[in-house]
Amino acid sequence: MRPSSSFAFFYLSMAAVIFALMLETGYLAAASTELDIAVVSSRLEYEESRKKGLLLVHRNYKQQLQGLIERQLKANDLKGANVVRSEMESIDLRIKALESDEWLSWNDLWAGTELPDNSGRIGQTVLGARRNFREQVKKGLVILNRRYLENYGGLQQKYMANADLFNANAINESREALAEELKAIQSSHASPFDDTSPSDVVELLERENHHRWNILKGKWDLAPHRLTGSGDSRIVYHQEIRVPFTLTYEFRVREGMRPRVYVGPFIIANNGYVRQIVLFPRKDGQDAFLYELDDKHKVRFEVERTTVKLFVDDKLIEQREEGIDEELTSIMFSGGDGWSPGTTEYSKIQIR
Question: Which of 104-113, 135-144, 313-322, 337-346 is predicted least confidently?
């Protein structure tokens, strides 16, 4: 819990705030008048601004979710309404915590609840709404933290110029806390999945993840260790995936020449009249990996916010100085298309 920053209780809470700050900085023996009022007021001002901003974004998101529930109920989709409700209940808990002056860290704000199994299209709608909500929280905190880093820096310079070591250290502690959170916000999480995921590596073809696959067209055989698409075929795997992440898989083309994997704006694909794997959109002078029917090859696609790298059989095929800066909600696989309705086998599909 953080102390209240209400003006009505400002002076009543001042003594408690000063005492807590002395404990944190190891200056318990110092007199209370040594802590400059600007240090305390700037911290309280930051916390109040943070609280108001987070409450605004959370309440707007809750209102959006309420609208989704109403639409699902009007469409006689009780199951879909309950999927949205599970998300809204978690947001409700955060709103109550913020209203009670409870401090929510960046990890608390980033965490997302696992949606119910077989949530279908409405689940993807919720994930998309959650992604936009998180982006608003992220942008707001980045702006706020940068502003107060600058403010705290000015105060620190003033105290240092006045040879006031006690207050210079006190405000520096606040600066370091903001800088640490800012670093965590900008790098997000190492894991590409929700915090509720039991592992940082997900096997897309494990039976427990079969409910996440949705056939768009063509014939597909989904087995625990193999995915085979025939004809003009596409299938989508649904899961919220955070950047950075690495996608790996093996493929074997039985017929035709159209193995394709769609990852955000990029396609790892065969196009044209030659059996080759390239990264689309294709660039001039780009390398390609040549393959033959019935040969098995391993693909690794490393995704960052500013770069991507494509490897085939551990050989670097393409590196781009452009990446994916938003979470993904799905990855699509193709076994063939209308021009070349072949058969492609995929195996060992992992995201980490």
Answer: 104-113
